[in-house]
Write a structure and sequence with these properties.
Layout (H helix, E strand, L loop, with lengths): L7 E12 L5 E18 L4 H8 L3 E8 L12 E4 L5 E8 L7 E8 L4
Antiparallel strand pairs: 1-2, 1-4, 2-3, 3-6, 4-5, 5-6
């Protein structure tokens, strides 16, 4: 993949924990960690993908370059298309090229809250 194919800007956000006022940690809002160039590709085919589309969810693969920052991404984080504002719930991470150059972030649009 060339740099020209990384056309989207994606922000990755991690949920914070805050004190509820009684000393108990509760989940707080998402906080932006970093913004990177990426390629967002919708998944095609398969029964599960078609079922997700019927419920308004679109599974996607977000391809990013490996870096110290992107290596921190975990399921439960939120990815956000910076230009369109579309949030994605990160569900899995895969290192498909096995060379630490690029890796795939499996995410679902229409699900992140």
């Amino acid at each position: 993949m060339t740099a020209g194919e990384m056309r989207e800007r994606v922000a990755f956000d991690r949920r914070t924990t805050v004190d509820d006022g009684y000393g108990n940690p509760v989940t707080g809002p998402f906080v932006e960690q970093f913004v990177v160039d990426a390629r967002i590709s919708p998944l095609k085919g398969g029964e599960a993908v078609m079922a997700d589309r019927l419920t308004g969810r679109q599974p996607v693969i977000i391809k990013v370059r490996w870096s110290a920052a992107t290596a921190q991404i975990h399921p439960g984080w939120q990815a956000r298309d910076v230009r369109k504002g579309t949030p994605f719930n990160v569900t899995d991470i895969a290192n498909r090229d096995e060379k630490k150059i690029y890796f795939d972030v499996l995410a679902v649009a229409g699900e992140a809250t």
